[in-house]
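Write out this protein's structure.
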Amino acid sequence: MVGQRLTADCQIVSPIESTYWWAGEIRRSEEWLLLMKTTAVRFEELARCVRGLHSYEVPQIVAVPLVAGTADYMEWIRRETIPGSGE
């Protein structure tokens, strides 16, 4: 996803223990949390990519808005998620 410029970066937090309802019962699973920074424009394409690669029927794919960030960091995210861009 980074190579396709769908996200500027991907951080992996693992392992985490998740407890959730699924198919009418409470389940527990060891999972990995991926934090990816992208733009609103690229979100749907990123979500499709994640869904296509994920083993879950309903993977957790959510957008958490960046309400503030340093100008240079926010520009870096924007610049690195432009299709076809390169250094």
